[in-house]
Amino acid sequence: MFLAYDHGLEHGPTDFTDANIDPSKILDIAVKGKYDGIILQRGIAEKYFNHKIHRTNLIIKLNGKTNLVKDEPYSAPLCAVDEAIKLGAGAVGYTVYVGSTFEAQMFKEFSRVIEEAHRRDLPVVAWMYPRGASVKGKEKSKEILAYAARVGLELGADMLKMHYAGSIEDMRWVVKSAGKSRIIISGGEKLDEKEFISDLRDSLKSGCCGIAVGRNVWQSKDPLDITYKIKLCLT
Ligand code: FBP
After folding, report:
1. How far apart are the CA of 118 and the centre of ligand 1, in A?
2. How far is 83 from 87, CA to CA, in rounded Å?
3. Fold entry, domain 2-234
4. Rounded mean pLDDT for each run of 10 residues along the chain, 235 residues in total
5. Options 129, 142, 147, 164, the catalytic residue
6. Candidates 74, 97, 161, 164; catalytic one
7. 161 is catalytic
8. Least CB-packed of 48, 145, 217, 230 within 10 Å?
9. Where are the domains of the chain?
């Protein structure tokens, strides 16, 4: 169970309110909610994360992009594996937009990250997100998600962070395609709580092994209550 908080870069402060714009508050949720890890970009980690106080694993997101540029998506490498280790990361995260015209470049850069991280015994979580004109409208289809999952396995990712395919049966195929790269489900935009929990239950039934969630927790009126409900699904 990971708490994601890299949205300031990916979406901008439009995702935030006074309740969650301060990273310290999110770190508080991660600690009190006993999350297995918190996902941060290096800038937030450097300035806010303190291992002595924040007793959770740090996952440094190594690349990113804003949503201001509307061309084909490309997520640029922003932090080296070495730097993540210095910050105390127990794992690193990397987004790969499968289907983008920049796919080849991202594969190349991601492969270097895999080599470096595995040389240092660091697990790699890949955000395998189908994106770009070639997959427009099919980003959550069984076939395209399964393709992205397989790419994650073939590139060497240890864990894949992916969107739900919409049904247990379709998601089972995505999970099978990922082989030994285990899938954690991506939270997505804020949903009605019942719908969110029901999708989570279904994704776990399909073989996903966990969740990396952001907005559905820290945009909730009661982040620790929804955390508790997520935990009930996972146990
Ligand atoms: P959420 O649970 O809030 O969707 O967070 C997961 C995440 O992958 C974040 O790590 C990332 O910032 C964001 O979603 C990217 O969202 P998108 O690419 O869909 O705009």
Report:
1. 25
2. 6
3. TIM Barrel (3.20.20)
4. 98 97 98 98 98 96 97 98 98 98 98 98 98 97 98 98 97 98 97 97 98 98 98 96
5. 129
6. 161
7. yes
8. 48
9. 2-234
